[in-house]
Specification:
By secondary structure, this protein is α/β, with parallel strands linked by helices. The chain has 11 helices and 10 strands. The chain binds guanosine-5'-diphosphate.
């Protein structure tokens, strides 16, 4: 489904109203709160979160006349408060290799994100191995090889259609033999057959645990921010398929209204390890709660 046009900076200015002479103010009453709620819902924040954020802003302030900049400040504070606990980089463990399983629907940006992460870890002096675990999509494997070359990281592949778990096992063996710091395993994202995918992911986990009972150390779910509220149901689905430990949100450079991140943080509390802000190798940023909150309110 097409994403509606984004609510860009200015929405709160419109709510309060604009006048050339002085900074306009509007009384904080029920009608205004309702409009604010509606705006937050339109911005993908989800009904529950929008209601709570609005209630928090209203508390102790009903009847007061506030300006757009005051309202922006209050809203940014509320959003930052929800986002701060989840703004956490991917934790690195002394464990070698640290195994990072990467899951998500096709097209969400898994391959790209793995390439970007590999490049960042390489730059930090880590030895990285990638396993192209989506063995059913030849194009995905080729794409990952291209990213591996860009990042200067070896990509282990297996013949098309072969068992991803056996590739994961071989990759684990190689990563251990080479003393690699990190092993990132790409996985299939076919949600059409959930049972299959669940079994496939479970088998990958089972075989890598034969090598290291504590693996995988992270299970990253990659989500496309332009899918709006769908991101919420994807989290729900993937949490049933795998032990998701954190999120990467891609395509925040585009038309995505980042509001869905607030809904995600509020509902699931899963760490947001990074955000994708473009198609190039350096277009992966740490998630900063304050910057994000300020940008979102405009
Ligand atoms: P996968 O199927 O999950 O592996 O998805 P890909 O990594 O192949 O990405 C799907 C498409 O999204 C590609 O065209 C990527 O260039 C694009 N993409 C991935 N991440 C981002 C991002 O952060 N911003 C933008 N604008 N595009 C992205």
């Amino acid at each position: 489904p097409a994403t509606p046009a984004p609510e860009r900076p200015g929405m709160l200015d419109r709510l309060i109203g604009r006048r050339a002479d002085a900074e306009p103010r509007r009384e904080l009453d029920d009608a205004m709160l309702e409009e604010l709620e509606e705006m937050l819902i339109q911005a993908d924040m989800g009904v529950e979160t929008a209601l709570r954020v609005t209630a928090n802003i209203a508390e102790g302030r009903m009847g007061r006349r506030i300006s757009a900049s005051e309202l922006k400040g209050l809203l940014a504070d509320e959003i930052a408060r929800i986002m701060e606990p989840v703004a956490r980089p991917l934790p690195l463990y002394p464990k070698r290799p640290q195994v990072v399983l990467v899951v998500g629907v096709n097209g969400s940006g898994k391959t790209t994100t793995i390439g970007k992460l590999a490049s960042q870890f390489r730059a930090a002096g880590k030895n990285v191995v990638i396993a192209a675990g989506d063995t059913f999509r030849a194009a995905a494997v080729e794409q990952l090889q291209v990213w591996g070359q860009r990042a200067g990281v070896p990509v282990m592949t297996a013949p098309e259609g072969s068992d991803p778990a056996s590739l994961a096992f071989d990759a684990m063996t190689r990563a251990e033999a080479e003393g690699a710091d990190l092993l990132m395993i790409d996985t299939a994202g076919r949600l059409q057959n959930r049972q299959d995918l669940m079994e496939e992911l479970a088998k990958i986990v089972r075989v890598i645990r034969k090598k290291d009972a504590s693996a995988p150390h992270n299970t990253l779910l990659v989500l496309d921010a332009t899918t709006g509220q769908n991101a919420l149901s994807q989290v729900e689905t993937f949490r049933k398929l795998a032990d998701v430990s954190g999120l990467v949100m891609t395509k925040l450079d585009g038309t995505a209204r980042g509001g869905v991140l607030v809904a995600l943080a509020d509902r699931f509390g899963l760490p947001i390890h990074a955000i994708g802000v473009g198609e190039q190798i350096d277009d992966l940023d740490a998630f900063d709660a304050r910057d994000f909150a300020r940008a979102l309110v405009g």
